[in-house]
Fold:
Amino acid sequence: MDVKLAVLADYSNVSKEGKLNILGIFDAIHCRVFPATHPQMQLVMRLEALPVETGQPKKIEVTLVDSDGKQLFGISGQLELKTIKPGEPIRNNNILQLNNIVFEKPGDYAFHILIGDDLKETVPLKVIQIT
Structure:
C-alpha cells in the first residue's frame, strides 16, 4: 500500500460519486504568539493498494513531530481495503480532522504517515511567527 496524495487543507470531503474535493491546501501557518493553537485543519490522504493486498489488514499511523523529533500528536489504526474491480488497484480517500493542535514554538514540523512500520510519506508544515 502506498500514499499517492497527502496534503494539509482547510477543508475536504468525498462526494457521493467518490470524488475527493480539497479546499485551501497549505504548508505554512502564521502565528503572533506562542504557544499557538491552530483551530482546525485536515490531513487529506489518498492511499492505493495492489489487488493482492486486499483482505490484508494494514496498520496505519500518523504522527506530528517538531524539528527536534518530539511527537506532538499520534493516531493509529487498522485499514483493510476491499476489491471493487478485479485486477485494478484499490484507492481509498482518508480525511483526518485535526482540531486545536498546539504549537509551542515556531519552526519546522512534519506529519509522518506510516503503513506497517514503513514511513510512506512526510507532509511538512512551517509554523512562522509574525510580528
Observations:
- The chain has no helices and nine strands.
